[in-house]
Design brief:
Blueprint: H1 2-26, H2 32-35, H3 46-59, H4 61-64, H5 88-91, H6 95-104, H7 119-129
């Protein structure tokens, strides 16, 4: 009886540590350099938003979905959380953080320096993502 109790406690502790490690691994650290980076583009410019939307539709929509809900046609093929761009939590990120994540990628999220080699294009995608607020 005592042996079963000890084994159960060890199993619970191991599960708790494993669960914690998943949470820690899931956090996406953004270097301070990017966190504080200022967006050099005019975020209110309608032409910039239109270009950003076009780039988003070409490169991002298949995973992140038309409205940024993470429900694109390829979403089921991707491991991990695709995020919901319309949430306050997502929108609370700095422009620099979104630029960094779009630029560098991680796991199933590819880095976009080859597909979008011009920094300005990635900034325009960030600007468009800002319009996906509910």
């Amino acid at each position: 009886m005592r042996k079963n109790l000890i084994l159960s406690m060890i199993a619970i502790a191991a599960f708790a540590l494993y669960s914690f490690s998943l949470i820690v691994q899931d956090e996406w650290k953004v270097p301070e350099k990017y966190e504080n980076m200022k967006n050099p583009t005019d975020k209110a410019d309608k032409e910039n938003i239109a270009i950003g939307k076009s780039l988003y539709n070409k490169h991002c929509k298949s995973c992140h979905g038309k409205e940024g809900y993470g429900d694109g046609t390829k979403a089921d093929e991707v491991e991990g959380d695709l995020g919901d761009f319309s949430t306050a939590e997502f929108q609370a990120q700095s422009d620099g953080a979104l630029f960094y994540k779009t630029t560098e990628g991680r796991d199933d999220m590819p880095e976009y320096t080859k597909k979008l080699p011009d920094d300005e294009d990635r900034w325009l995608v960030v600007n468009y993502m800002r319009t996906l607020v509910e």
